[in-house]
Specification:
mainly alpha, two-stranded parallel ribbon, 4 helices, about 5% strand, elongated
């Protein structure tokens, strides 16, 4: 089981203390995952909103509010409300699992993975 919380109250998240206490009282080992507030790959609403905005940008020709709202509704109807959210949620879980596996690999190797080519895929400093 994995819990998420988006609102930061202090340097620590309130739910971390609650989860530690809950695990101690119930003999469980539930992990909490803190996600960035508006990370486009880890928040289904950001993916849904991005899909809708892309559709409007490609299809809007009259640039009126009624036109934008109509295209937005068209996009949701085309994907189906359930499917719209389900696809975004599945993508979010897949992305989250990639981050978890990467973290586990770092923990296992102590950050020293000899199979790595030493390049940071997020480093664009060249």
């Amino acid at each position: 089981m994995c819990l998420t919380l988006y609102e930061k109250r202090a340097k620590r998240y309130v739910f971390q203390d609650w989860l530690k206490e809950f695990n101690a009282q119930n003999g469980t080992d539930i992990k909490g995952l803190v996600l960035p507030v508006a990370h486009p790959r880890l928040n289904p609403i950001e993916m849904c909103w991005g899909n809708a905005k892309n559709h409007v940008a490609r299809s809007c020709h009259n640039f009126t509010m009624d036109g934008v709202i109509g295209l937005f509704k068209e996009q949701i109807a085309a994907q189906g409300r359930e499917n719209f959210w389900k696809k975004s949620y599945v993508k979010m879980v897949e992305e989250m699992n990639l981050y978890i596996r990467a973290d586990e690999k770092i923990l296992e190797t102590g950050g020293n993975d000899d199979s790595d080519d030493g390049e940071d895929p997020d480093d664009h400093s060249e």
